[in-house]
Amino acid sequence: SLESLENPRGTTPLSPQFVKITPSRTPLDLKGKIGLDPSAGTVGNTETLVRIAEASRVTDHQYKIRIKANNATATGPKIRNPKYSVIDMTESDTLIHEHTNNDLNPNIKDNYRPIFDGLQVVFDNIEAAKAKEVRWVSEQKYIDASPRSSLTYPFAADYAIVFGAEDEVLDTAYWNIPVPANAIPVPFKTINLTRGGKVPVIFRSPGDSTLNFNDEIVFYEQNVPGSSRPSEITWIMNFSWDTLLVAPEEYPFVPGDTLYFDTDKPFHDGDEFTFSAADYREKVPLSEEDLEKIKVVPNPYMVSAQWEQSQYRKKLLFTNLPAECTIKIFTLTGEYVNEVVHDDLYDDSAAWDLTTVNRQEVAPGLYVFTVELPGGKKHVGKFAIIR
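RE: above sequence
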């Protein structure tokens, strides 16, 4: 019978139709990731990354990601999964136009993310803002601040509250009820870091007009998206502390105490991010601690291991290598065995076929290797070969 006329492209002994793929990582001394810069006015900060899908196709172009989403409102609808476009700013070319990322809906099957110039935009958008972090940047250690939203759709913004001395006046606030007659001087001020400018606040303190235990600062903001009212309560910050350390009726803050409150924010219509693909190949300095990440796999190397019984040559891998280096291998007595030159911007590993410089198979035993970088830095390690 005639042999098949198909041209097998396989690379493994399992089947002529199977292709063996070995994933690689970015060399140790390259940045290996791409940073995003939000444009002015961008609100969303949901986790977004530009993934390296095909390193050899990555260019040094400048790109822009532009978001298209339905409008945010105070009561709904929440921001659903937005569309995004990718523009090559270097070539003035739109590479992806309003593509929907369907990660939020598991019932949609075509949730692929297109690849452009070896890159891929990956994000998991949240549908509504939520509290992310509350932190003091002063020496304040024992006051707990707990935020909560008053809206079905929480307001997407970051804030800072700055405190002064108890008798200091930093702003005015409405005491319990937001009417002009209840405006009182207060020793704190609240700033909307996303919009810019001070935030009108309601000061909820049932007992007196001093900020005490379990009192609240209420953000009373204007022009809240989707609200028909001129002002809307957005966030409420409650303060509490260990009353064994500070009496509940005392004012516990000192001048300069500053509280930051950050939110996770979904993408909003018109959000934009720019990035440079050249960041991927940016060199980073290596410390001695970084060089300790260089490994040999497998270690120990077992010559009789089942995975070595194939048509391929035996090989041992050096991993987590910098893009350019020379690996020299020695016996424990210092006898030179062989060397491997690694020069690859896309792979952090190099293979050695377990032969000497004279093409003889090496004997079992303990070996020393050095990884030498062009700048003079060197890493020394050991590995074993077992029959």
